[in-house]
Amino acid sequence: MYGLRVAVVGGGLGGLAAALALRQAGHDPTVYEQAEVFRPVGAGISLWPNGVKVLSSLGLGREVAALGGRMDWMGYADRSGVNLTEFSLDPLYEAVGQRAWPLARADLQDLLVKAVGSERIHLGRRCLAVESGADAACVHLDTGEQVEADLVIGADGTHSTVRSWVLDEALDHEYVGYVNYNTITPSDEEIVRLGLWRTWVGNGQRASVMPIGRDRLYAFFDVPQPPAEAAEADPDPKRTLLSRFAGWAPPVDRLIRSLDPARINRVAIRDLPTASRWYRGRVVLLGDAVHAMAPDLGQGGCQALEDGLVLTHYLTTTDRSVSDALSRYQAERLPRTADITRRARNRAQMTHGQDPLALQSWYQSLKRETGEIVVAGLIQSVASGPCR
Fold first, then answer.
1. What value does the mean pLDDT of the chain take?
2. Cα(94)–Cα(98) distance, rounded to whole angstroms?
3. Which of 185, 199, 310, 315 has most Cβ atoms within 10 angstroms of its Cβ?
4. SS3 85
């Protein structure tokens, strides 16, 4: 099928990438985003090789490499700064045929907006409801507009309006046990040397810095908190970090003290139970709207990118019906994203101390880690995507 009119609800990374893939395949997508201006959620994104391959297939590989940070090594240290392990990521890159390019979310969003074309993106349009008939679907916007299309894509994130209609019920998020603080800060070799993704661990907490483009670091901190505390606002996130990481290694203290408190994001980490259905009629879900996952495998954004590419593939290659294409899309994507969501939750629970014995066992295993086990886990996540 070609030339489908597609209304994409949500202008995040997944919605924009899907719109780009659809346009390049000969369809007619339009994006409806509720924000008046684009404000990326989160400071950075760990764009692993499977996500890079999707963007490369859309003609953006060179730009992504120019925007991303060169990440050659991965290492762990304990809270006092004693090195536990450090190893090259070359075996991963050799196995899958592509480097990772972590980058700022704002940079990737700007790249996708330009590639899609501003004329196809309508800001300040909040989706109130959707409906589907046999031959068309409709989006009802808060502006009073009713947008009719051959297909509606719900890419409207974790609090998706479209998801509630597709599933005909609310799907409640589940708190995984910790709060993440994240920001972007200038590179500093007194904190970490160039090309190294460094993580300090202790007491179920994590402080981490990942290289991104333009000589900057994506810095993130994990703090286990009970649900009630996690749900409360934090009026002084920098003070919280200085308190929770007091006495940690000098690079961690230097990192926190260098941060601009106004630019620190705070997110209580939640995921979604696996949905049994991804589409209803001519309305379909992708990205966080259907498989919001803990960031512990770094795959949330990458899986949204894969969704858009696979959905476009089936919409373009099937000649039976839209329903047939959506069925094939769901059959391919549901098992993969369910597996990654499950593994991300299991890792979140283990590395953040929900089982103290398992946590201490992991810390001890890092002293013996030479890279093979970690790289094998990364390969498991990235090698089975649509761009092999």
1. 96
2. 7
3. 315
4. strand
> What is the gyration radius of the CA atoms in the chain, in angstroms?
21
Q: Report pLDDT digits (tens) over 168-216.
A: 988 889 999 999 999 999 999 999 999 999 999 999 999 999 999 999 9
The answer to whether 267 and 180 are in contact (CB under 8 A) is yes
Class of domain 5-173+271-382: alpha beta
355: tokens are: 């089982």
Residue whose tokens read 């001890």: 364
Structure token digits, residue 110: 């700007």
Q: How many CB atoms lie within 10 A of CB 226?
A: 9
Residue-by-residue DSSP string for 132-196:
E-SS-EEEEETTS-EEEESEEEE---TT-HHHHHHHTS----EEEEEEEEEEEEE--TTT--TTE
Using one digit for the tens of pLDDT, what is the confidence trace for 85-94?
A: 999 999 999 9
Residue that has been written with the tokens 């599933």 in this structure: 167
* CA gap 351, 370 in Å, rounded: 18
281-328 residue pLDDT tens: 999 999 999 999 999 999 999 999 999 999 999 999 998 999 999 999
- Give the per-residue pLDDT at 41: 67
Task: Decide: residue 354, CB within 10 A, 0-12 exposed, 13-18 middle, 19+ buried.
Answer: middle
CB 182 within 8 A of CB 44: yes
Kindly report the length of the chain.
Answer: 388
Closest of 333, 338, 11 to residue 157, by C-alpha? 11
Within 10 A of 18 (CB to CB), how many other CB atoms are there?
Answer: 30
pTM above 0.90, yes or no: yes
Give the residue extent of every domain in the chain: 5-173+271-382
- How many distinct helices (H) and strands (E) make up the chain? 14, 18
Cα–Cα dist 181/267, whole Å? 6
Residue in 250, 198, 248, 203 with CA at minimum distance from that of residue 219 = 198
